[in-house]
Amino acid sequence: MVKVAVLALQGAFAKHCEAVALCGHTPVVTRSASELARCDALILPGGESTVISKLLVSNGLVEPIRGFIASQAPVFGTCAGMIVLSQPKPLEQGIRFSAIHIEVDRNGYGSQIASFEVPVTVLALGSKPFQSVFIRAPKVTRVGEHVRVLASHDGTPVLCQENNVLTASFHPELTDDIRLHEYFLRQ
Ligand code: GLN
Fold first, then answer.
1. Can you say whether the dihedral through the CA atoms of 2, 60, 17, 169 is positive or negative?
2. Sequence-ordered list of residues with C-beta below 8 angstroms from that of 46, at least 6 positions apart, any chain
3. C-alpha 135 – ligand 1 centre gap (Å)
């Protein structure tokens, strides 16, 4: 059984914990470096990346997470979690771990009222499409050569992986479909 740190500073962490438990693994609600240190994998949930960034600093989690990523442990970022794992961009504030070679536009799909749900084909999950919930989602604008695009929507990558780091523009934890969490935890 894998111990999965679910960053619980702000945002949609409770549903990620449920998905991890449904996969048969142990979610660890994580707000400190010592909780992270007990875990084998990490999920960075959606929420508000500016708020999450400030809380990462005040909770002393920036360097521990940097080290966790560098240790090649599996890390999954969804929505705001994807933003903090991406590359920094000029004039943008907030933590960017540069854990995956992607650049994103925050709120690139529009504001809250432009939220939408769409079935997306993820070949790695089989032929049944994955229902994907986009809420003020980050839009991927650049993808490095070693990044694997596991799914796209309207020609834009929405699920990307590079080595140990997986990122989704959408919220996989908001559906009952746990295939993406299973995929991540198989890594
Ligand atoms: N728009 C948010 C941000 O900039 C992300 C939204 C989400 O995580 N659902 O951080």
1. negative
2. 11, 12, 78, 79, 80, 81, 135, 171
3. 7
Domain extent, residue 182, equals 3-186
- Token pair in block for residue 179: 């295939």
Domain count, the chain: 1
Those residues whose C-beta lies under 8 Å from the C-beta of residue 183, and which sit 6 or more positions away, are: 124, 125, 166
Percent of the chain with pLDDT over 70: 100
Q: What is the CATH number of the domain that holds 162?
A: 3.40.50.880
pLDDT tens across 79-90, in order? 999 999 999 999
20 CA to centre of ligand 1 in angstroms: 21
- Give catalytic residue positions: 79, 171, 173
Tell me the angle at which helices 49-58 and 62-70 cross, rounded to the nearest 10 degrees.
100
27 lines ligand 1 (CB under 6 A): no
Supply angle C-alpha 77, 138, 18, rounded to 5: 35
Residue of 172, 113, 174, 102 whose CA lies nearest to 139: 102
Binding site membership of 47 for ligand 1 (Cβ less than 6 Å): yes
Q: Whose CA is nearest to atom 6 of ligand 1?
A: 136
Task: Please give the model's pTM, rounded to 2 decimal places.
Answer: 0.97
pLDDT at res. 118: 98
Ligand 1 center from residue 169 Cα (angstroms) = 9
